[in-house]
């Protein structure tokens, strides 16, 4: 992979691209890999560090034991992936879940589907209208999960995975950067979401970049210059997460102290070690075949809530039916 300077100079008209990898991983694999590696002889100290990290990120809920039964029986399983917008997970201010995705994993069809939900989706929680990203801020991860279930009339049977997107810089740097192909041409300069960025960056559609943490954060945060708004940002966030997972595959990287410390401070989940092992053993093929979807609405202005995304019943029914199909045994 050439440097950005080499790309700018032309590199003799050629650019070396990394070989495409057929197995595309998603957020859950970052956690699963930590468990799978316990059996490859990495040594007692490596196991100690890994186990300490797993213990710190786990927060069992009422769903945990039920999910263990589901994965032990090798049935389709679903998770809610949540990304908070600022700070570390131990902070007093929790932040809102600006990234929300339902992930279904079906070992029968060997397909994993990720369905994004816009952060400004209008929902009603305890009789009060709010944006869906506020359900976590005013409650817990379970509150966010319940809001998603009520919106789509579904049941999530695996649990949740909460990631602090503010830790993205440290996570990307810990794995040595990420290689990402930009889906559009844009510059971060003048975009108010980049007010706290150390640098401004420009990207060209179809161009592959090796990004450090700050560049990856700028790439994934931009929203106002994207013709698809927050929907476009959701897809770019997924590209960064996939890049992190690609570079986390080696034993040396996974047991890097910097990465383990970053994970322990920036990930929480109610998925048990039992379910992680079950997923690693019986669901692996499904993780290599990922499909993507989005719940898409229309933008409306609503009083004190400002701009919201209103989902039509037709769109809700479509996603509801799609998820039920994904979960069919």
Structure description:
By secondary structure, the chain is of the alpha+beta class. The chain has one domain (4-326): LCP protein (Aminopeptidase), CATH 3.40.630. Helix content is 40%, strand content 21%. It has 14 helices and 14 strands. It has helices at residues 4-9, 27-36, 44-57, 64-72, 134-137, 141-152, 168-174, 213-221, 229-246, 251-254, 257-266, 273-282, 284-287, 313-326, and strands at 77-84, 97-106, 111-117, 122-125, 128-131, 159-164, 178-181, 186-187, 202-203, 208-211, 267-269, 290-295, 298-302, 306-310. A 6-stranded mixed sheet has the order 11-6-1-2-3-12. A two-stranded antiparallel sheet has the order 4-5. A two-stranded antiparallel ribbon has the order 7-10. α2 (27-36) packs across α12 (273-282), α4 (64-72) packs parallel to α12 (273-282) and α7 (168-174) packs across α8. The protein is globular, with a radius of gyration of 20 Å.
């Amino acid at each position: 992979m050439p440097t950005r300077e080499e790309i700018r100079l032309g590199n003799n008209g050629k650019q070396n691209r990394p070989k495409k990898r057929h197995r595309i991983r998603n957020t859950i694999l970052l956690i699963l890999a930590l468990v799978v590696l316990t059996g490859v002889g990495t040594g007692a100290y490596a196991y100690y560090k890994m186990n300490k990290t797993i213990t710190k990120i786990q927060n069992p809920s009422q769903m945990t034991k039920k999910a263990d039964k589901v994965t032990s029986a090798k049935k389709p399983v679903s998770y809610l992936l949540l990304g908070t917008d600022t700070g570390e997970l131990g902070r007093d201010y929790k932040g809102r879940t600006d990234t929300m995705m339902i992930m279904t994993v079906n070992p029968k069809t060997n397909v994993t589907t990720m369905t994004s939900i816009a952060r400004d989706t209008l929902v009603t929680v305890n009789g009060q209208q709010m944006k869906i990203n506020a359900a976590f801020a005013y409650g817990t991860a379970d509150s966010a999960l319940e809001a998603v279930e009520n919106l789509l009339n579904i049941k999530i049977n695996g649990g949740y995975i909460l990631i602090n997107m503010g830790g993205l810089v440290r996570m990307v740097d810990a794995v040595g950067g990420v290689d990402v192909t930009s889906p559009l041409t844009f510059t971060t300069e003048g975009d108010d979401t980049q007010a706290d960025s150390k640098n401004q960056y420009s990207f060209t559609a179809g161009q592959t970049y090796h990004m450090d943490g700050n560049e990856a954060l700028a790439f994934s945060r931009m929203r106002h210059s994207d013709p698809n708004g927050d929907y476009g940002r959701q897809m770019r966030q997924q590209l960064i997460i996939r890049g992190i997972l690609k570079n986390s595959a080696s034993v040396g990287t996974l047991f890097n102290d910097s990465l383990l410390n970053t994970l322990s401070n920036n990930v929480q989940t109610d998925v048990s070690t039992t379910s992680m092992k079950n997923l690693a053993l019986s669901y692996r093929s499904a993780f290599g075949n990922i499909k993507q979807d989005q719940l898409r609405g229309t933008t409306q202005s609503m009083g004190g809530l400002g701009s919201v995304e209103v989902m039509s019943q037709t769109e809700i029914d479509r996603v509801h039916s799609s998820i039920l199909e994904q979960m069919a045994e």
